[in-house]
From TrEMBL:
This is Transaldolase family protein. PANTHER family: ARABINOSE 5-PHOSPHATE ISOMERASE KDSD, PTHR42745. InterPro entries: Aldolase_TIM, CBS_dom, CBS_dom_sf, GutQ/KpsF_isomerases, TAL/FSA. It holds the Pfam family CBS. It comes from Xanthocytophaga agilis. Residues 223-280, 285-340 form the CBS domain. SUPFAM superfamilies: Aldolase (SSF51569), CBS-domain pair (SSF54631). It comes from the Bacteria.
Length: 340
């Protein structure tokens, strides 16, 4: 099924054409009026240079007037092989369609509301027979039934005409066009850009990114450049300052010879405050007992870090490189990368 963009918004059109696979553009005087276009001919010429196929109106009260309007627009420099003239269905319209087709021009007979109109357009050699589904439904008509009848008729008679599903109001219309076997559809950009959206797809993609990061990125890739440490002779106040400045809820406690002894967390701070009160701040870090801290090498994969967080149910892991403390990995660091 051919896919056209339905628009007169130049920014939308340029963005849409960058997809690289759209068949072309359909536009109308109504769209151009809405976008504030004052020089329609100049706009048409500009669009013809941007899109693979341009579908534009050829208007007139008689077949001769319609033909002259099409010829006038071609004289602007349009390529007949890349231009489709849209003609509202009428007796004069299908007459003009036949004349233009005999001259090798392409025609879209549109504003089709009945199977009889579609039949006349097909018989006149129209390249496209265009049903405005949204407009029909607004007026209480069964547009989908008509489109199905048009598709069946054209396929039954082996016509080269293509049924175009237009006046697309929602993504369900695109589904309808596919199910009905339409040959082509023209879709507004606001709907086209969400046709690939689906929550399950979003969740699955996020999981792929997450799992890829876990097995390819290393701890050193995401840790902060802050490395909050204190020594045994430092006071608790020094630890609080280090935690505040680094943004971590813990500090590494080092022996005087520079070796890692343990970790002092904001949880430890609260517990000690409950026991010692305000005098706690002046106490030395050597006044407390420390358990063997949980560490991880800086070149370890993030998958290893995630396993440690889950197994030990902790919030912070000390990061080492050649037995030297180089930083901390917080559970929030993993969250920032959508890894938990």
């Amino acid at each position: 099924m051919e896919l056209y963009l339905d628009s007169a918004d130049l920014k939308e059109i340029e963005t849409g054409m960058k997809l690289g696979f759209l068949t072309g553009l359909t536009t109308t005087p109504t769209f151009m009026h809405r976008e504030g276009v004052t020089d329609v001919d100049a706009m048409i010429v500009n669009l013809s240079k941007i899109v693979p196929v341009l579908q534009i109106e050829a208007l007139g009260s008689t077949a001769d007037e319609i033909i002259k309007d099409a010829e006038r627009q071609l004289a602007l420099g349009l390529d007949p092989a890349k231009t489709v003239f849209k003609i509202p269905v009428s007796l004069e319209g299908v007459k003009a369609c036949k004349a233009l087709r005999d001259r090798g021009m392409m025609v879209n007979v549109h504003l089709v509301y009945t199977i009889q109109q579609a039949y006349m357009a097909m018989t006149a050699g129209a390249n496209y027979v265009c049903v405005l589904a949204g407009r029909m439904q607004d007026q209480g008509y069964d547009a989908l039934k008509l489109i199905r009848e048009c598709v069946d008729m054209i396929n039954y008679y082996g016509s080269d005409a293509k049924v175009m599903f237009s006046s697309v109001r929602n993504t369900e219309h695109v589904r309808n066009a596919i199910e009905l076997g339409c040959h082509t559809i023209t879709v507004p950009w606001k709907l086209m850009k969400i046709l690939t959206d689906n929550n399950f797809t979003t969740v699955g993609t996020q999981q792929f990114f997450e799992h890829t990061r876990l097995v390819t990125m290393r701890v050193r890739d995401i840790i902060s450049d802050k490395n909050p440490v204190v020594k045994l002779h430092d006071e608790v106040l020094d630890a609080v300052v280090q935690m505040t400045q680094s943004g971590f809820g813990a500090v590494s406690v080092m022996k005087e010879d520079g070796r890692l002894l343990g970790i002092f967390t904001d949880g430890d701070l609260r517990r000690q405050l409950a026991s010692n009160g305000k005098n706690l701040m002046s106490q030395k870090m050597s006044a407390f007992e420390y358990k063997t801290p949980t560490t991880i090498p800086a070149d370890a994969l993030l998958n290893e870090a995630l396993a440690i967080f889950k197994e030990k149910q902790i919030d912070t892991i000390i990061v080492t490189d050649n037995d030297q403390v180089v930083g901390m990995l917080d559970i929030q660091d993993m969250a920032k990368w959508d890894l938990i």
